[in-house]
Amino acid sequence: MAGGGRRFNMNCFHHLLRITGAALAATLCCGRLVATDLTVFAAASLSDALREIAAAYEKTTGDTVRLNLGASSLLARQIREGAPADLFFSADEAKMDDLARAGLIDPATRRSLLSNSLVIVVAADSDLKLSSAQDLTKAAVRRLALAEPETVPAGIYAREYLQKHDLWEAVVGKMVPTENVRAVLAAVESGNVDAGIVYKTDALSSKKVRITYEVPRDEGPRISYPLAVIKGGGNPRGASHFLAWLTSPAGKSVFAKYGFITEP
Questions:
Q1: pLDDT of 12-41, one tens digit each?
Q2: What is the pTM of this model?
Q3: Cα distances (angstroms) measured from residue 86 to each of 10, 79, 94
Q4: Which CATH architecture has domain 118-214?
Q5: Which CATH architecture is the domain 37-115+224-262 placed in?
Q6: Comma-separated ranges of CATH 3.40.190.10 domains in the chain
């Protein structure tokens, strides 16, 4: 009788193991215990902050975050053409609006997270002294780098600011357009141009340039960085988790460290 009881108990034990194993397998397949890959399309100006945040996220979750960094206009076009993306983090609202009109983002996930300001920079060893945007019209500034002013947010913001202060016509002949704001920074660092207009966060990331003038926020264009989950992406759940991480106090603190202004 005792032996039978032991056999019965062992049978129950093995059955319990099978149930537990099945439940664990289901959790691993469907829950957050499985590491996943997600692809984030993000503005070039977010590069440094996003790399730091993504590294911390990967270490904590085991997920892999693939960053595709570039001009928001180029990234939005890639998404419209079917490039695989899970999350879009734009440097302006207009590019996100374009994707929204095309039905390519989940509107419930969209939010504006960051702001920035424009600055005029010169090479760190330059003798140029530019105390206002008006000084860009001087003969000493022969070549002025801007991100492409028709399509790239940083360039559009710079053009709008210069137009508002009736300076655009005076400097457009000096303009050297680049593919994104980081390319402006590189042009100034190398000495290929005399000055450039970039986001403050980009200027702070380089020891090879110095800020000669910061556009007051109440005089410059409203700079806004929205983000949203892409509809039909391969990993909407992972994208939502990463979006939550980006908008958390921990994520915002990293953006603030790099000079971004975080929205409430």
A1: 434 433 433 333 333 333 344 577 999 999
A2: 0.84
A3: 48, 10, 19
A4: 3-Layer(aba) Sandwich (3.40)
A5: 3-Layer(aba) Sandwich (3.40)
A6: 37-115+224-262, 118-214
String of DSSP letters for the chain: -HHHHHHHHHHHHHHHHHHHHHHHHHHHHHSTTS--EEEEEEEGGGHHHHHHHHHHHHHHH--EEEEEEE-HHHHHHHHHTT---SEEE-SSHHHHHHHHHTT-B-GGG-EEEEE--EEEEEETT------SGGGGGSTT---EEEE-TTTSHHHHHHHHHHHHTT-HHHHGGGEEEESSHHHHHHHHHHTSSSEEEEEHHHHHT-SSEEEEEE--TTTSPPP-EEEEEBTT-S-HHHHHHHHHHHTSHHHHHHHHHTTPEEP-
Beta bridge partners of 112: 226
Residue corresponding to tokens 């892999």 = 64
Give residues with Cβ within 8 angstroms of 236, minimum separation 6.
86, 106, 229, 230
Distance set, CA 49 to CA 19, 67, 189, 204 (Å): 44, 12, 20, 12
Residue range 1-18, pLDDT digits in tens:
444 444 434 454 344 334
